[in-house]
Amino acid sequence: EAQVTQNPRYLITVTGKKLTVTCSQNMNHEYMSWYRQDPGLGLRQIYYSMNVEVTDKGDVPEGYKVSRKEKRNFPLILESPSPNQTSLYFCASSLKGSGANVLTFGAGSRLTVL
Amino acid sequence: DAKTTQPPSMDCAEGRAANLPCNHSTISGNEYVYWYRQIHSQGPQYIIHGLKNNETNEMASLIITEDRKSSTLILPHATLRDTAVYYCIVRRFSGSARQLTFGSGTQLTVLP
Description:
The complex is a heterodimer. By secondary structure, chain A is an all-beta fold. In chain A, strands 2, 4, 5, 6, 9, 10 and 11 form a 7-stranded mixed beta sheet that branches. The N and C termini of chain A lie far apart (36 Å). Chain A is globular, with a radius of gyration of 13 Å. Chain A is built from no helices and 11 strands. Chain B is mainly β. Helices cover 0% and strands 46% of the residues of chain B. Chain B has no helices and 9 strands. In chain B, the strands form 2 sheets. Chain B has a 5-stranded mixed beta sheet, with no helix packed on it. In chain B, strands 2-7-6-5 form a 4-stranded antiparallel beta sheet, with no helix packed on it. Chain B is globular, with a radius of gyration of 13 Å.
């Protein structure tokens, strides 16, 4: 089944403890992206990647890192999480980053930072 | 990307057509209109997109006005499972790699 898989789905952690949220897609998509969703603020883009080794900042990149060493994987790294990063996170991918392509989203990862 | 305006909420009776409007008066000629929906806190799901012509797929129909300043998403026979937040988004064809900007959307509640 074509899908975007995120792990973990739920995580409670403490301030400053590094964590990684993994994202993997099995559709050979070039484009991948991370969003966070907060009440009243909608979905905001954190980082995106047009292809392997090509990443760029979205609207809210502060406090996050990403890497794209393989086409299928796009992990989101929180080096020193803070409570304001408590949010619902979504990874998404599309065939390309341009043109009339549609995004396929993962199921989401709910992160709580105490 | 052009800004979109949607009503915050709508109700629809089960089995009836749900018509969700979207205003995108600042849309430019090369911008597509996309519709996604999000059921509770699940990942957003693609529904349909179009540029100028009306479009239909197995989920919905998209009607775009001739001046392209507004559109309507039609769910022909709404079911309880269609209760969700529906997002209307416009995006440049030329490939703004920053992709889609999701606004607040319309909370559609399908009533039994």
